[in-house]
Amino acid sequence: MTNENKFFPRLVESMIRDAISDTPVVCVLGARQCGKTALVRHLFPDRPYVDLDTHSEFVVASEDPSSYIQRLPDTVTIDEVQKVPNLIGPIKVSVDQNRQPGRFILTGSVNLLLIPGLTQTLAGRMEIIDLHPLTESEKSRSSGNFLFDLLDDRLKPDFRTDRTVMSDLEFEERIISGGYVEPLNRDVLRARQWRRNYLRDIAEREVSEAFKIRNPELLSRIMERLACRTGSLLRISELAKSLAVHRLTIERYLAYLERVYLVRRIPAWHSNRTKRLIKSPKIHFVDCGLAATLADFPVDNQEKNRVYLGHLCESFVVQQIIAHAGWTHPDLRFWHYRDKDQVEVDLVMTLRDKVWGFEVKLKSSVNSRDARGLIKLANVCGNDFQKGILFYTGNDIISLAKGLVLAVPVSVLWTR
User: Fold this and answer.
1) 37 pLDDT higher than 50
2) N or C: which end of the chain has fewer CB within 10 A?
């Protein structure tokens, strides 16, 4: 496969072009190997480019950041800017002297928003754009957007007898293939080996260098535990006890893993209407291919496989929706719902007072009983509740609970 064929058009392309037309500094952030460099160089092939991940550039930039920025062309792309955070100050000085739009494109594999002081320095001068691993719609080269249809209330019951029901095996393959380009071009065993090397690099180099980690072995063990718990409530004390470390150590390492886009915490949704809510966040691996590799999925025990696949399925859908939200509406926020009666909703989306709920079922037929959590959420929210979406592996869009809930084929996330 040629390099040209390996490039996948990304749905944030228009956002980057818009930002560079009116903003002096545009920063594209995302996990290492998720395609930041390929995307920026594809969009702007003639733009001067420097890579701080190369030793020579890193040394020169680190020794004298101000002189380094002064010697660069007026418009330039700086790759892996988090390697030399002291460049941010000189970039601000340069931009204040010349506020021409599109002067600097920065890419970073560490979330600069979570590093105190860096983004404040460029406040009003920089726009940050998140790049996720490939979504299923991008892998399918589809420009459809499920969230646009949902927000505009265009999703309606639809019976499609001409479509083939997606098999469990096909859906499982989609989930565990993940969103990184390189392993998509390999067979299953070689893809798993690529992911193992990637995860080793994250633990031993990426996080260790960025945050001065002295115990990458412990970090690797924490990553494994979190992968096995993806789609579950985050219990810091239990995790600390299982590893025989202090909970503050877990908190610190977890924050590092969030900064390099490996995991995300989904906070608990709250409302003044009820006090019977569980407040613990949920933990999700951003890429299910990485999670499955760390958890050694699949195993010989079919029952364990089915349970874990259900958690992977939830993390998979959460990631697809959050990624789609990035190019749909900047004010969308995400939560999970769980009350003390163990009634839960996998993902809650809010836009100011408006509320939507998403539940995921790994089954090809559903009924109102499967929508119990969504119905409970609708009752709690009252008029603020817009719609519940029950994803499943069947064919049809079906109205449930007197129209409060739509059962929707999960494939609409990449085919609609």
Assistant:
1) yes
2) N
User: 252 and 140, same structural domain?
Assistant: yes
Separation of alpha carbons 51 and 81, rounded Å:
8
As a whole number of angstroms, the distance between CA 106 and CA 124 comes to 15
Do the strands 263-266 and 126-130 form a parallel or antiparallel pair, or are they unpaired?
unpaired
Reported residue count of the chain is: 416
Structure token pair of residue 388:
């519940």
Task: Tell me which DSSP letter residue 339 carries.
Answer: B
Give the DSSP per-residue string, 233-272: E--HHHHHHHHTS-HHHHHHHHHHHHHTTSEEEEPBP-BT
Residues 278-297: pLDDT tens digits?
789 999 999 999 999 999 99
- Of 69-83, 161-175, 210-224, 299-313, which one has max mean pLDDT? 69-83
Q: Do residues 260 and 32 make contact, with C-beta atoms less than 8 angstroms apart?
A: yes
Residue 347: strand, helix, or coil: strand
Alpha-carbon separation of residue 151 from 40, 147, 282, 335, 353 (angstroms): 30, 6, 25, 17, 13
pLDDT beyond 70 at 314: yes
- Rg from Cα positions in the chain: 22
Q: Which domain holds residue 251?
A: 136-415
Q: Which of 71, 96, 130 is the last residue of a domain?
A: 130
SS3 402: helix
Measured distance CA(269)–CA(339) in Å, rounded:
10
Q: For residues 281 and 332, state if they share a domain.
A: yes
Contact 33, 198 (CB under 8 A): yes
